[in-house]
Specification:
Organism: Limimaricola cinnabarinus
Shape: globular
Radius of gyration: 21 Å
InterPro entries: Amidohydro-rel (IPR006680), HutF (IPR010252), HutF-like_N (IPR055156), Metal-dep_hydrolase_composite (IPR011059), Metal_Hydrolase (IPR032466), Metallo-dep_hydrolases (IPR051607)
Helix content: 25-40%
CATH class: Alpha Beta
CATH topology: TIM Barrel
Protein name: Formimidoylglutamate deiminase
Distance between the termini: 48 Å
Number of strands: 17
Domain Amidohydrolase-related: 46-425
Number of helices: 14
Bound molecules: zinc ion
Strand content: 15-25%
Cofactor: Zn(2+)
Number of domains: 1
Structural class: alpha/beta
C-alpha cells in the first residue's frame, strides 16, 4: 500500500488541508485530513484529480511541425489530411509503438493520467492485414504498458472514403475494414488487452458518419451493448454540408435522431452545431470531445461553449493530432477561442464563478466518463488518477486556494506538474516520467529509421 501526503488537495467535496490518501490496487481506499505526514509517505504540495485525455491519434505526434509550410493556394484540413496519409503510409509497427510510447510519456508529464486512443491504422501499407489482425493495437498496448498510462482503446471502423459510401482512396486502405472484419479485430484486441493492468478499457469508434453507413452504424452499436462509443462528428463545414446532402440532416442532428446516443457516447469535434443541436446534445448525456489545440491548428472553428455549458452539457479534452502536448494550453485555448469569438471575458462557466475550476473539474469528469474510468475526482473507491502541482512556483505562489485552478489554466504551464499517478502507478516524479530517457532514445532511433526510409 502506498500513502500520499498532500499539503492540500481538491477532494470531491472541496479543498482540504493536510491530506493523507491510502492507495491499494490502483484505487483510493481511504482519505484522512487534518493529520501530518508519516515517515514513508510520498509528500506533495497540491493534489488534484488527473484528467483523462479523451482523444489521441498517437502516430501523428511524429509529424508535428511538418505541415506548417504554406503551399501555393489555400491550405485546409483536407490538404493537411493528404500529407498525414502520406506520412502514415510509411510507418512500421515498431515505429508506431515507439512514437506512441514517446507521446504517452509527454501526456503523463503534462498531467494526464489516461488516454483514449482512437486507433485507426490497422493494416500494412496498401491495406493487407497483418498476420495478427490486431498487431497494431498490440503495439499501442505495449506503449501503454511501457509508460504506465491508463489506456482506453478505441479501435476504429472505417469503411468508406467519404459521405455517401464512396470507395476508400489509396491513402485510406491501411485503416479500411467492413463490420465483420472489424469484429474480428475487436475480439483479438480485447483478448490482448487482458495483459494490461485492470484499469484498461476497450470501446468502439465508428470513425465518422462520412466513413461509415447508417446500416453499418446501427449493426455496430447493436452488437456492442456496453463500453464507450466515440465518433468524429462535425469538425468541418464541408463535412456538415456533405452529410446534409446525403442524409438530409446535419451530423449531430442525424446522430441524435437515428441512434441511441447516451452517456456512453463521446462526440469528437462537435464544432459545427446549431443552437438546437447544442442543447439536444447536452440533454443526451454524451460527452463533447473538444480538442482545442488541434482544432485551432487545423482551422476547424470554435465550439459553441456558452449554450452548451448553460444546458449542462458534459465535455472533456483531447490532444487529437498531438501537434503539441499541453494540458494547460488545451484548457486555456478552449476559453480563449470563446473570448476571441464573442469579444468578452470569462465565458465558459454557467452563471458565475471561477472559469479555471469549471473547465478543469468539468474536463476531469467528462474525460473519465468518456474513457469509462472510475476517476475524475478524489474520493474513496475511485481510481488513483492523481496529479500534484507546485503551488509555490512563480506562476501560482501569489494565489489563494480558490484561485489556484485559474492560475493553473491561465497563468501556468505544465511545468508546475511534479507527480502523476495513473491508477496508482506513480509514473511522473519531480516533473519527469520515470522512463523518459529510455523511451526517448527508442523514439529517436525509430525516427532516424523513418526519415532514412
Ligand atoms: Zn481525431
Amino acid at each position: 500500500m502506498a500513502v500520499i501526503y498532500a499539503k492540500q488537495a481538491l477532494l470531491a467535496e472541496g479543498w482540504a488541508a493536510n491530506v493523507r490518501l491510502d492507495l491499494r490496487d490502483g484505487r483510493i481506499v481511504s482519505i484522512d485530513h487534518g493529520t501530518g505526514p508519516e515517515a514513508n509517505d510520498t509528500r506533495v504540495d497540491t493534489l488534484l484529480p488527473a484528467l483523462g485525455n479523451l482523444h489521441s491519434h498517437a502516430f501523428q505526434r511524429a509529424m508535428a511541425g511538418m505541415t506548417e509550410v504554406r503551399q501555393a493556394g489555400r491550405d485546409s484540413f483536407w490538404s493537411w489530411r493528404e500529407l498525414m496519409y502520406r506520412f502514415m503510409d510509411r510507418l512500421t509497427p515498431e515505429q508506431i509503438e515507439a512514437i506512441a510510447a514517446q507521446v504517452y510519456v509527454e501526456m503523463l508529464e503534462a498531467g494526464y493520467a489516461s488516454v483514449g486512443e482512437f486507433h485507426y491504422v490497422h493494416h500494412q501499407p496498401g491495406g493487407v492485414p497483418h498476420d495478427n489482425i490486431a498487431e497494431l493495437s498490440e503495439r499501442i498496448f505495449a506503449a501503454a504498458a511501457r509508460t504506465g498510462i491508463g489506456l482506453t482503446h478505441l479501435p476504429v471502423l472505417y469503411s468508406y472514403g467519404g459521405a455517401g459510401q464512396v470507395e476508400l482512396s489509396a491513402g485510406q486502405r491501411r485503416f479500411g475494414t467492413g463490420v465483420d472484419e472489424f469484429e474480428r479485430l475487436f475480439d483479438a484486441a480485447s483478448a490482448a488487452l487482458r495483459h494490461l493492468p485492470g484499469d484498461a478499457r476497450i470501446g468502439i469508434a465508428p470513425h465518422s458518419l462520412r466513413a461509415t453507413s447508417p446500416s453499418e452504424l446501427s449493426r455496430l452499436v447493436a452488437r456492442h451493448g456496453q463500453g464507450p462509443i466515440h465518433i468524429h462528428i462535425a469538425e468541418q463545414p464541408r463535412e456538415v454540408r456533405e452529410i446534409e446532402d446525403w442524409l438530409g440532416a446535419r451530423p449531430v442532428e442525424w446522430l441524435l435522431g437515428n441512434l441511441p446516443v447516451d452517456d456512453r457516447w463521446c462526440l469528437i469535434h462537435a464544432t459545427h452545431m446549431t443552437v438546437t443541436e447544442t442543447r439536444d446534445m447536452a440533454a443526451s448525456g454524451a460527452v463533447a470531445g473538444l480538442c482545442p489545440i488541434t482544432e485551432a491548428n487545423l482551422g476547424d472553428g470554435a465550439f459553441n461553449g456558452p449554450d452548451y455549458a448553460e444546458a449542462g452539457g458534459s465535455f472533456g479534452i483531447g490532444s487529437d493530432s498531438n501537434v503539441n502536448i499541453s494540458l494547460t494550453e488545451e484548457l486555456r485555448l478552449l476559453e480563449y477561442s470563446q473570448r476571441l469569438r464573442d469579444g468578452s471575458r470569462n465565458v465558459l462557466v454557467p452563471g458565475a464563478g471561477s472559469v479555471g475550476r469549471f473547465l478543469y473539474m468539468s474536463a476531469a469528469r467528462g474525460g473519465a466518463q468518456a474513457l469509462a474510468r472510475e476517476a475524475g475526482s478524489i474520493a474513496t473507491g475511485k481510481l488513483a488518477d492523481l496529479v500534484a502541482i507546485d503551488s509555490q512556483s512563480a506562476a501560482l505562489c501569489a494565489l489563494s486556494r480558490d484561485s489556484l485552478l485559474d492560475g493553473l489554466v491561465f497563468a501556468a504551464t505544465d511545468r508546475v506538474v511534479t507527480d502523476v499517478w495513473s491508477a496508482g502507478r506513480h509514473m511522473v516524479r519531480g516533473g519527469h516520467h520515470i522512463a523518459r530517457d529510455a523511451v526517448f532514445a527508442a523514439y529517436r532511433t525509430a525516427i532516424e529509421r523513418l526519415l532514412a526510409s
